[in-house]
Amino acid sequence: MTTTPAAPPAARPKRRQGDRIFAGLSRGAGIFILVALAGVFVFLAIEGIPGLTQPASFYAPQASTFVGYVVPLLFGTILAAVIAVIIAAPLSFGIALVISHYAPRSIAVPAAYVVDLLAAVPSVVFGLWGINVLARKVAPGYEWLYEHLGFIPFFAGPPSTTGRTILTAGIVLAIMILPIITAISREIFAQTPRLHQEAALALGATRWEMVRLTVFPYAKSGMVSAVMLGLGRALGETMAVAMVLSAGGGITFNLISSSNPASIASNIANNYKEGTPGKVSVLIATGLVLFLVTFLVNFAARWLVGRSERRMAR
């Protein structure tokens, strides 16, 4: 009985020099980002942990403990960011869909450039526009909301006469994160397999039915990623919120009154320059809380995207 010799193992393809260089640079960039992130966390932990146990005078007049001091700030941060996402996400998806599937190329390309240019506008410019233009324009609208919808806790009033409310700050943040969500969604929508779209149209689906049945299911994970990235940007925004918001402290769901909760980032920007060493450590501790919240948001986004991709792979 003769046995056939085993086939020699296939030789691994030789990697080109350019591929090795690119792989090394990519790996080094990833490691550098992780090291920088760890460095930021270590700095915030070392400088901020003393702020957790400062005397009550350092948290006055808002509170007497660090928890009582940071909770209203965290509430304001999340509230402004959620308002921004609620406003920006539908608009961003609609704009991205128009650019990728509805508008002719002669309109879609310039529109995409204009949306992308919004991302290059400094936040201080948005803040100046918000306080000098938007706040004045929306103040009469807040009066109308108070008169007609005052029974809803969000519009219980009394309305702010200056328009510098948490809702105005949320609108400004929505405009700031709109290009991020739009750009990512546009690219995801454009990558939907052409055969799937043509098959849906061939079966008699309308343009909207084709989008709903082929584009949205394919792009769902990318849409979640876009929203979470926009949320992360809104959570950490500083100057625009600090300039627009007239913060009064406390926790309230009233969106149109003058009593507004401050955000962590705007509170740091407003108080860091004139703070004593003990007060600075308290502010850095609040920055550590914001860092952890942002990290958890991005971690949750990555988990949601991974779960969606695993479901689609089945």
TrEMBL record:
One of its GO terms (cellular component) is plasma membrane. One of its GO terms (biological process) is phosphate ion transport. It is a multi-pass membrane protein. One of its GO terms (molecular function) is phosphate transmembrane transporter activity. The chain crosses the membrane at residues 21-46, 66-99, 111-131, 165-184, 238-256, 280-305. It is found in: Cell membrane. Residues 74-301 form the ABC transmembrane type-1 domain. Keywords: Cell membrane, Membrane, Phosphate transport, Transmembrane, Transmembrane helix, Transport. InterPro entries: MetI-like, MetI-like_sf, Phosphate_PstC, Phosphate_Transport_Permease. Pfam families: BPD_transp_1. Belongs to the binding-protein-dependent transport system permease family. CysTW subfamily. Part of the binding-protein-dependent transport system for phosphate; probably responsible for the translocation of the substrate across the membrane. This is Phosphate transport system permease protein. It comes from Nocardioides aurantiacus.
